[in-house]
Amino acid sequence: MDLAPLRERDFALLFTAGLISLTGNWVLSVALPLAVLGLTGSPAAVSVVVVASLLGTISAGAVAGVYVDRWDRRRVVVTVNVLQVVALLPLLLVRTADDVWIVVVVAFATQALAQFFQPAENALLPQLVDATRLPAANALNALNNNVARLVGPALGGVIAVAGGLAGAAVLDAATFAVAAVLCGLIRGRHRAEASDNRDLRRELLEGLRAVAHNRIVRAIFVIIAVSSVGEGMMGTLFAVYVTKALHAGGRELGWLMSAQAVGGIIGSLAATRITARFRPVPLITTCWTFFGVVDVIIFNYPRWDTTFWPVLALFVVVGIPVGIHVGAIWTLFQIETPDRLRGRAFSAIWLGASIASVVGAGIAGALGDRIDVLTLLTVQGAGCVVAGLSFRLLAGKGPGSLVRPEPQPKAAEATAH
């Protein structure tokens, strides 16, 4: 494993801030639906909260990248972390079912704010490390998600019982406060090259063209959108798969989530070396195809047997290619996209993924009562195989390496913008 980027002070601050705040997010993601269900007894109320989150993602995601490319990215991540603290505080007022509207508003606001943070973080990261360390830095950033996914849900379950929604909200707000302080310690200014002609419509079109006119970035958009349809189906049907196909329960569901996180951690640590040694397009293609094949095996296993431990082992295995390809695909995106357009292009990709997730959830909801869950999830896994193979065709040969010997602008240089 290559941990050298953590010796870069500013990247280490961003990495630590992300790990802390993501863990808090996972805590709340477990505690919040449990609290809403406990207050209302209605799954429909939980679905309203989920829809509010998606609407926040889509509405803000359409324009967030424009402002990320206008503003200092360091200030954006600091400000968003502070605003997340403020946005979470109304959850302390939730006491009865009549107060659930507060949860809906908070879900919308926090997801809308996140749409500013994610492209700013992605655009900022290449400015904080040497170009030769960019693949390892992205792999370590992906590691954050998996570590948080491993720790956060377990911690969220404990806090949901001990402190309820208020306890989870306070903890999540505290993680954002700490993250704001850490990001505030990052040195220098990190604003993209200024544009003299600021027009929201024109800038949005520039971001879309950055995706559409670059063969590799366009391929990244497609593969993430296709996989997000599957993620929407998976999010809707996963509990059905665990309870009806495996004849298991909530405890086993949590184990499977943790198992995939373990695989993701293994993959992310391996990726700090692997992504710098192999051609990125074939590497991403291989990871995505392997992921889809293992998914197909996982979702057809109950046709033969329902013994739980083989599925648990397969979830570890399926997490490994995810841990590898996430760092590779975002490094490829960063080196293919000019800094001045990076926020808008990232937002366009993420907006497409969000809409695709809604489509996937809708497909699963519409067909879930007519087609058995194993068949639907098999289609999802097969879709990942098709997406992986299509990526090779859409992206072409691609660059020989993700490592760029020329130096990226560092903090001292960024001050000149």
TrEMBL record:
Pfam families reported for this sequence: MFS_3
Subcellular location: Cell inner membrane
Main localization category: membrane
Record bears the keyword Glycosyltransferase: no
Domain called Major facilitator superfamily (MFS) profile: residue spans: 1-191, 216-417
Protein name per the record: MFS transporter
Secretion signal, residue range per the UniProt entry: none
